[in-house]
Amino acid sequence: MKDIMIIANPSSGKKQAEEYAMRAKYLFEDNQRQADVRITECEEDIEKYVKEACKEKYDTVILLGGDGTVSKSGESLKNEKHRPKIGIIPTGTINNIARGLGISTNIDQAVEDLVNFKELVTDVGMINDRLFLSSISAGSIPETVWEVSKDQKEKLGPLAYFIEGFKSLREEENYSIDMSLDGKKMKFDLTLLVIGLSNSVAGIPNFFNEAAYDDGYLYLFGLKESTLGEKISVMTSLLNDNETLSDENNKGFVIPFKEGSFKSNHNLNVALDGEKGPCFPFDIKILPAFLTFLVPVN
Ligand SMILES: Nc1ncnc2c1ncn2[C@@H]1O[C@H](COP(=O)(O)OP(=O)(O)OP(=O)(O)O)[C@@H](O)[C@H]1O
């Protein structure tokens, strides 16, 4: 068994991944651990190196990148018998998966924490046959996620999503969605549908304030057609007290579930961990206790 493989996506975020990969390697070596560094040259290299780590039975993989890098790595582990533990140094733009795991978005701190960690066994989500680690979303706001160019992201960081999302509110549309959640059939007209695994969604902490990566549930948030005032009221309840959103007759509501199927009258794409994902219809379920992450002790 080999010890640690460090996989760095040099195009993520502010392009600091390579530098921090070397810093992490030296820190591990100072702590009597052995680390091999792989720098990806293209998107396909993420899968290539993750699969190499499985084949060579590495104990741990450290990922330097954002949600795209971490999500693709998770997907690459889907059919592997040996799945290394995963540490994240969040060098991406939004880093929602790292946030949900309680990993510091201060990169220096995240590196330090890798030698003072505890293991967290987490659930993952499965949409059709694709794995996701953070969220699935559909509606006019998520549609803007993949409209944000790499250039905008580099210049504006998370603000780029906010600006695009705000523009899309003016062109808001309703989608008729038929769903079955743990066997219960429902139908709603929604402007926004979000399904998440942890408390953090799109970089917003406490989006699902009761959700945790190891609780065995997916959480659905639905927002119906509403005035700006109603939206603000729903978002305030969402970020403070999910209890008030447990009634599906409200403008906004939250439902925990384990498996579901979704159909829509629109040929709508979902955003998967912040990138363009599959179209409706889709099936979705939780895979409990599927991956092991290294998270800070505190
Ligand atoms: N050399 C490369 N290695 C790996 N991926 C690359 C490379 N060049 C471009 N990419 C692309 O970079 C994308 C962005 O990576 P990632 O999502 O990790 O960073 P980010 O977009 O800055 O962060 P976040 O998703 O957290 O906002 C990947 O989805 C991949 O398609």
Automatic annotation (TrEMBL):
Protein origin, superkingdom: Bacteria
Q: Which Pfam families match?
A: DAGK_cat
Gene Ontology process terms (BP):
phospholipid biosynthetic process
Quick check: keyword Transmembrane in the entry? no
Keyword match Zinc-finger = no
Residues of the DAGKc domain: 1-131
Instruction: Extract one GO molecular function annotation from the record.
Output: ATP-dependent diacylglycerol kinase activity
**What cofactor does this chain's UniProt record say it requires?**
Mg(2+)
InterPro entries, per this entry? Answer: ATP-NAD_kinase_N, Diacylglycerol/lipid_kinase, Diacylglycerol_kinase_cat_dom, Lipid_Phosphate_FormReg, NAD/diacylglycerol_kinase_sf
Give the UniProt entry's GO cellular component terms: plasma membrane
Name the keywords, alphabetized.
Answer: ATP-binding, Kinase, Lipid biosynthesis, Lipid metabolism, Magnesium, Metal-binding, Nucleotide-binding, Phospholipid biosynthesis, Phospholipid metabolism, Transferase
Question: Which PANTHER family does this entry report, sorted A to Z?
Answer: LIPID KINASE YEGS, SPHINGOSINE KINASE
The similarity annotation says: Belongs to the diacylglycerol/lipid kinase family.
Q: What is this protein called?
A: Lipid kinase, YegS/Rv2252/BmrU family
Name its species: Marinilactibacillus piezotolerans
